[in-house]
Amino acid sequence: MTTDDATDPRNPYVLARQTFMRYAEAVGLERRHRGKDMATRMTTPDRSIEFRLSLTHDDGTIRAYSASRVQFNDDRGPYKGGLRFHPTGTLDHCKALAFWMYLKTAVVDIPFGGAKGAVAVDYDTLSLSEKERLTKKYALVLRNDIGQQKDIPAPDVGTGEREMTWIMDAWRMIHGTYDRGIVTGKPVTIGGSQGRVTATGRGVFFCVEEAARRWKMTLKGATAAVQGFGKVGSSAAAFLADAGMKIVAASDVSGAVVNRKGLNVAALKRHADESGGVTGFAGGEPMDRDALLEMDVDLLVPAALENALTNDNADRVKARFVAEGANGPTTPAADEILTRRGIRIIPDILCNAGGVTVSYFEWVQNRQEFYWPADQVDAELRRIMTAAFAHVAATADEHGCTLREAAYRIAIERVAEAMLRRGTQ
Question: Which residues are catalytic?
Answer without folding.
Answer: 116
